[in-house]
Design goal:
Shape: globular
Helix content: 10-25%
Distance between the termini: 24 Å
Oligomer: single chain
Low-confidence stretches: none
Largest sheet: 8 strands, mixed
Number of strands: 12
Length: 258
């Protein structure tokens, strides 16, 4: 434990900020709220963000499943921008999350999901029971640009973090060739075995940003909890401070929990 200058005690909380549910057409059928919560608790994860593709319709169900467990669930989505880049948009509460959802709803591209081609998109309750199918094709780009999306997320006080920045598909670096310097991202996410050192060496525009690693979990075993956040309490405001290394807070990457 650490103590800040004003006497606050900080300790490490393990966080996983990129988890899909059965709402995402590419996710395993096992990705239902009670199993996600159980997996996170078994791996001693303290903070988990639900980030389905272009939708938050299952975030509330995971939050309900985690009630009274001590696991903090943050509602969010993995937004597919007009530029074909994926960005994590994470919010403090459902009210702000669904304010953003309504904006995304107005910017869906035409097209409905074809289950046999793209996979099912299940809206479920906190027990994992089926409620309905989501008909919008969630795996395609919205009509929101990165800059437009940032302005909306920032107005709502959310976190804005490009996903798996090095991936050839939907990664911001291969797609744009650089990190835009006009958008103050809260962090950048790398994935797989791509090291932070390599990211900074190969892409100078990455330097100066906080780098985090997530499991991008589409199945239970990929809920990994790489991030250790040195904060006073596992709250949204403290997480934001840690991502910006402010007031003594910080985030570092540890080994995945298996």
């Amino acid at each position: 434990m650490l103590t800040t200058e004003n006497g606050q005690t900080l300790r490490d909380f393990r966080a996983e900020l990129h988890v899909h549910t059965v709402l995402s057409p590419c996710a395993s059928i096992e990705m239902i709220p009670p199993l996600i919560v159980r997996e996170a608790l078994e791996k001693k994860i303290d903070i988990l963000a639900v980030t389905d593709h272009n939708s938050m319709l299952n975030a509330g169900a995971v939050m309900q499943a985690a009630e009274d467990t001590g696991l903090v669930i943050l509602p969010g989505m993995e937004l597919h921008t007009r530029e074909e880049v994926h960005v994590l948009c994470i919010f403090e509460n459902l009210e702000k999350a669904f304010d953003f959802q309504r904006i995304v709803d107005d910017h869906y591209a035409p097209g409905e999901n074809i289950e046999d081609v793209f996979g099912p998109q299940y809206v479920v309750d906190s027990t994992g029971d089926f409620i309905r199918y989501e008909t919008h094709l969630l795996s395609q780009a919205t009509r929101l640009s990165i800059d437009e999306a940032f302005k909306h997320v920032n107005r709502l006080g959310g976190l804005f973090i490009p996903s798996h920045i090095q991936r050839q598909v939907y990664g911001i670096l291969p797609t744009l060739g650089f990190i835009p310097d006009n958008i103050p991202f809260d962090a950048l996410e790398v994935s797989g075995n791509y090291s932070f050192e390599r990211a900074e060496k190969e892409n100078p525009s990455v330097r100066g940003y906080t780098l985090i690693r997530n499991g991008d979990a589409h199945e239970l075993e990929s809920i990994t909890g790489y991030n250790l956040m040195s904060i006073s309490t596992p709250t949204f405001s403290e997480i934001k401070l840690a991502l910006h290394h402010y007031a003594g807070r910080s985030v570092k990457t540890a080994s995945a929990v298996r």
